[in-house]
Specification:
Blueprint (H helix, E strand, L loop, with lengths): L2 H17 L15 E2 H11 L4 H12 L11 E2 L11 H4 L22 H10 L4 H25 L25 H6 L26 H16 L4 H7 L4 E2 L1 H20 L5 H18 E2 L4 E2 L2 E2 L4 E2 L18 H11 L36 H13 L3 H18 L4 E2 L6 E2 L5 H11 L16
Antiparallel strand pairs: 1-2, 3-6, 4-5, 6-7, 8-9
């Protein structure tokens, strides 16, 4: 290994050591003290290379707070940290008969990358017996998680699940949600009382506006008032979106869950069938031929959300587009808006830099995120676009090496923003340095045919 990479590995490991609390890894030491769902999945993939015990503990601790209906919560709260909004008392998760009684959680979810992470950890294990025992312990929990999504979030049986809050996308402040947020004309008495904590630790100009937080809080109260009953929520929820990133990661996770089933001697056929159904549905409903990208679909209006964001290229990671569409997607990534081939830009901005709402340092409105670059890098590798994948690999390493392990980065300057000492940035940087492509189990053909 190159000496600079050795130093980078040591620095990344120190970040994870600093944020590890014995049960889970804090995403960031000040802004994010609790356990976040998809953060833990991504972090576990970094640990898989050098700390298997942490990887398995991380994921096991998360699933220990799974709801009885299969919902895997976005946040598992650590009661030692009270200065966080929305905290334990704001969610009223206990109103649901499905919520755990031994731990406190939020009442929304995050992108389902967990089966992918579990399989990744298994494939990097040195102790085959212990790793297989870990698979056996988490397999029924993973299956219940996916079954919840398809049962409760896909009532029409399309093969596409919906999200009901921007936080469920993992892209809280994306311009994709602006049109929906603008439709929510709230009266003062409809906005729950709250006090933000995020702007105490991070520059307010990098964070969502207060008007966005008003609507985030309103939706949480909407769910709690309905006791987190999905059928009741569906009846009047103003935010119901079939999100590209969420469904692409679910499609990939079901592929990986099928692989786990094979290892355990279970029947993978139903999972493989469901995976193909989701891939077909994404190709038929979410593909935008004009712009060479997949678009989110707003179930409330019955229309696609015409907003162009980097996470909507992630179907490449799940082998969803055919070769022709993949080529179109690469062309779009290399266009001026996303600048993958532009040496004057740090790729890939999370939102089209010529879009109306672009802001290079505001949360999900333009900054570069290492997790999205990592998913796109892996997706490009799957289709043989080695030059483009290498550009993203070099970008991830140079950002971490030169700027540090930040939550996100300005695509115009490369400077780091948001939380520093950010765990998934460190974990995925580790994976890039120590990458083992054989672990990806690359498919020979796409799923959507």
């Amino acid at each position: 290994m190159h000496k600079l990479d050795e130093q980078l590995v040591q620095r990344a490991q120190r970040i994870l050591d600093f944020n590890w609390n014995g049960e889970y890894t804090q995403p960031g030491p000040r802004l994010y003290p609790h356990q976040w769902s998809w953060d833990s999945g991504l972090i576990a993939m970094g640990y898989a290379h050098y700390a298997q015990d942490r990887a398995t503990t991380e994921l096991t601790h998360l699933f220990d707070s799974q709801w009885t209906n299969g919902l895997l919560p976005q946040i598992v709260f650590n009661p030692r940290f009270g200065e966080y909004f929305p905290g334990i008392d704001f969610w009223h998760a206990e109103r649901s008969p499905n919520a755990p009684r031994e731990s406190k959680t939020s009442g929304v979810v995050q992108p389902p990358i967990h089966a992918t992470a579990v399989l990744y950890v298994y494939r990097h294990a040195q102790d085959e017996a212990a790793a297989k025992e870990f698979l056996g312990r988490l397999f029924p929990k993973l299956r219940a998680w996916h079954d919840y999504l398809y049962r409760e979030r896909d009532p029409e049986g399309e093969g596409l699940v919906y999200i009901r809050h921007p936080w469920e996308s993992g892209m809280d402040n994306s311009p994709m949600w602006d049109s929906i947020m603008e439709r929510l004309q709230l009266l003062p008495e409809q906005i729950p009382k709250y006090r933000r904590a995020d702007t105490h630790f991070v520059t307010a100009g990098d964070r969502p506006l207060d008007a966005a937080y008003d609507r985030f809080a309103y939706l949480v109260k909407f769910f709690a008032d309905r006791d987190y009953d999905e059928a009741k929520i569906r009846e009047g929820c103003p935010f119901l979106v079939q999100d590209v990133l969420f469904n692409a990661l679910l499609c990939r996770a079901d592929q990986d869950l099928a692989q786990i089933a094979r290892v355990l001697g279970e029947d993978p056929t139903p999972l493989e069938k469901r995976t193909r159904k989701t891939a077909r549905a994404m190709n038929e409903k979410l593909w935008d031929e004009q712009h060479g990208i997949y678009l989110d679909f707003d179930l409330t209006t019955g229309r696609p959300l015409q907003v162009y964001v980097a996470p909507n290229f992630v179907p490449l990671y799940a082998a969803i587009p055919d070769e022709g569409r993949a080529s179109r997607m690469v062309d779009s990534l290399e266009s001026a808006g996303f600048g993958l081939s532009d040496e004057s830009l740090t790729p890939v901005p999370s939102y089209d830099r010529y879009g109306f709402a672009f802001f290079p340092t505001r949360y999900w409105r333009g900054p570069v995120w290492v997790n999205i670059n990592w998913l796109l890098m892996r997706g490009l590798q799957r289709y043989g676009y080695e030059e483009q994948a290498q550009r993203l690999r070099e970008t991830i390493l140079s950002l971490c090496r030169d700027q540090g392990f930040y939550e996100y980065y300005d695509p115009t300057t490369g400077f780091g923003h948001g939380s520093d000492l950010f765990s998934w940035t460190a974990a995925l940087c580790l994976d890039v340095v120590l990458e083992d492509r054989t672990s990806e189990n690359l498919p020979s053909k796409h799923l959507g045919e």
